[in-house]
Design a protein that fits this description.
With about 280 residues, the chain is mainly alpha-helical. Helix content is about 75%, strand content about 0%. It has one domain.
Length: about 280
């Protein structure tokens, strides 16, 4: 056993990257094998975009406004395309950890030659990114039909893509921390449900926080939820703002904070399991 550990350490960082890269690619291939399931989910996206396009058109017309909270009607629908794509691909890592703890398979997972949290991260990205991509393509076609195109640049699309990946990592870190509570509580789905609803409402899934009362909008800007929905949605809809470095830095900061919290819960949970005999 000791020799195996030394051998793995001696292979260096590239071996670690290759190992989790293989997990990512395996899940990615599996996700594309079931692309039909993702396409079926986009039927819900089409319904949502159609309903909200009619609601927003009525709202803009009734107010006689060209912009609401800084968004034109077209920008608002494209904003919804991205936020709904993120929603339809949300993480289920908490239920996976729940199942492992209840079934007892957690002991086998912890004994395998990979870090438990990094395995879930690689597996999650391989599953989620294709679903977001499919939803964006289908949602983009629907938005083109409903409201037409919006002005985009290569820089804007590139920065938006980076922000989407960071948003996925912020969301994953939060859900992962909740899932790891399964070391102490029997079912984390109730906590995950509250967290999910808070993320959707305060993060701006359906309504940008900029339409909220100023005091509430400031609170939303401080919380991590806006890094999941509002920031990438705003970038896609309205372009790259001058303070983009600060905004992306906020996403990175929340990834670090939530990731460290999840790591602390994991270490304490593993110690708790070991102290109780596995």
């Amino acid at each position: 056993m000791t020799n195996n550990i030394v051998l793995r350490r001696g292979r260096g960082w590239w071996w670690t990257v290759a190992k989790y890269g293989a997990i990512f690619r395996t899940k990615l291939a599996s996700s594309f094998a079931y692309a039909g399931d993702a396409l079926f989910r986009t039927l819900f996206l089409a319904i949502i975009l159609f309903i909200f396009s009619q609601l927003w058109k009525t709202t803009y017309s009734g107010l006689g406004a060209h912009r609401i909270a800084g968004f034109t009607i077209a920008q608002m629908i494209w904003y919804l395309v991205l936020t709904e794509a993120i929603t339809l691909s949300r993480s289920t890592v908490n239920t996976e950890i729940d199942d492992e703890v209840r079934s007892g398979s957690l002991a086998y997972s912890l004994g395998r030659p990979y870090h438990y949290l990094l395995y879930h991260l690689a597996n999650h990205l391989g599953d989620r990114l294709p679903r977001i991509g499919i939803s964006l393509v289908v949602g983009g076609v629907i938005a083109m039909v409903l409201v037409g195109p919006i002005h985009e640049t290569v820089l804007g699309l590139t920065v938006t893509a980076v922000s989407i990946i960071l948003a996925v990592l912020v969301d994953f870190a939060g859900v992962l921390g909740i899932g790891l509570l399964a070391f102490w509580i029997e079912d984390t789905r109730g906590v995950a449900l509250i967290h999910g609803r808070a993320t959707m409402i305060l993060g701006g899934m359906l309504l940008p926080p900029s339409v909220f009362p100023p005091a509430l909008a400031k609170v939303c800007a401080i919380l991590p939820f806006s890094s999941v929905y509002f920031l990438p949605g705003r970038l896609l809809a309205t372009g790259v703002p001058p303070d983009i470095g600060v905004l992306l830095g906020k996403q990175v900061a929340w990834i670090m904070v939530l990731g460290l919290i999840a790591l602390a819960i994991y270490r304490k949970g593993v110690a708790h399991v070991e102290s109780n005999g596995g």
